[in-house]
Amino acid sequence: MVRAKIIYFTAAIILSGLTQSQAAEEPELKAVLPQASSFTAVKRGGEIIYYRAQDRDGQFIGAAFEARSKSYSEINTLVGMLKDGTITAIKVLEQNESAGIGSRITEPEFTGQFRNIKDISRVQAITGATVSSQAVIDSVKQKAEEIKALLKE
């Protein structure tokens, strides 16, 4: 019974065109771009640059991408962005900042500032965790600009 479920799940992934790693990433992608029904990896040189997001009708609505930064540690943030440049949400995927200080970049009080915002300069750094939070702000802003340019190509 368990084996049949595994075979069915694997077949469903293959038939949908998703790799197993993409299927595992789908919930994370939907967390930052919940309006999307599906995601397609856009690659350059075998590396995923961003995920193209489509609605139920297959229409392009935006992109999800990773923004990487360096503070006291590497910080990897997943970002959702609509085609008009509005950041829908972020999620810090990886960080090793100081507990209770820099790690506050994962808290909703900080990440929530990115919800449905066009002007990232309005996001406030965290007092006491300025370096970490500013690293996230700067990386999201920079990568969003890069992705916007790619979307225009």
Detail the topology: elements first, then pairings.
Layout: H1 2-16, H2 20-32, E1 38-44, E2 47-54, E3 60-70, E4 74-82, E5 87-94, H3 108-111, H4 130-152
In short:
By secondary structure, the protein is an alpha+beta fold. It contains 4 helices and 5 strands; from the N terminus they run ααβββββαα.
Features:
5 strands, single chain, 153 residues, 28% strand, disordered N terminus, alpha+beta, five-stranded antiparallel beta sheet, 4 helices
Architecture overview:
With 153 residues, the chain is of the alpha+beta class. The chain has 4 helices and 5 strands. The protein has helices at residues 2-16, 20-32, 108-111, 130-152; strands spanning 38-44, 47-54, 60-70, 74-82, 87-94. The protein has a 5-stranded antiparallel beta sheet with strand order 1-2-3-4-5. The longest helix has 23 residues, at 130-152. The protein is globular. The chain starts with a helix and ends with a helix. Residues 1-23 have low confidence and may be disordered.
Work out the radius of gyration.
17 Å
Give the strand line-up of the largest sheet. 1-2-3-4-5
Biggest sheet details? 5 strands, antiparallel
Strand fraction: 25-35%
Please work out how many helical segments DSSP would assign.
4
Give the uncertain stretches in residue-range form. Answer: 1-23
Structural class: alpha+beta
Please tell me the overall pLDDT: 84
